[in-house]
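G., the chain you wanted modeled:
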Amino acid sequence: MKRLGAVLCLMAVFALAACGRTPPERAVGVTRIAPADREGMPVISGPLLAGGTGSIADGAGRVVVLNNWASWCEPCREEIPLLVNAYAAADPGDVLFLGLNVSDETAAASDFVDVTGMPYSSIVDTDGAQLATIPGVPARALPSTVIIDRDGRIAARIIGPVRGGEVTEITAEVARES
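Predicted structure as tokens:
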């Protein structure tokens, strides 16, 4: 009985300590943003995993799908087939897919791309600094995906792994906005 009393006492202390605080908002899932409420996407650019350089600006005038991933992230590995399907369904003249490889070693990231069959290029973000600049995306959110409209504004955020055909659906909706 004394043990139960001690547990209840600790619970009361923690409850009092949290009084008056608003619990943190859970950001996991899909957030679609109305055109009037969209904010600009910061420039994400740098060396590509396969060589050369890349930028979301390469998709100017197109819808851009930016998928943030790491080789050691199991949910990232699980979502790749869905992203590969979305990539295959998209018109490359209308939609640019780009990865942002976060906090990874080059060899591990290259192996991940080979094993998963990821067909699009990935910018290297070794220290996660670029991921941390994306509005509304937690600094270490992996996997996460941002869909950017033709005007360079964030149209949707997916925090956590993508599901089913949601990337294809959202990308098509944003593309129809012209």
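Confidence is low (pLDDT under 50) at residues 1-26.

Shout if anything looks off.
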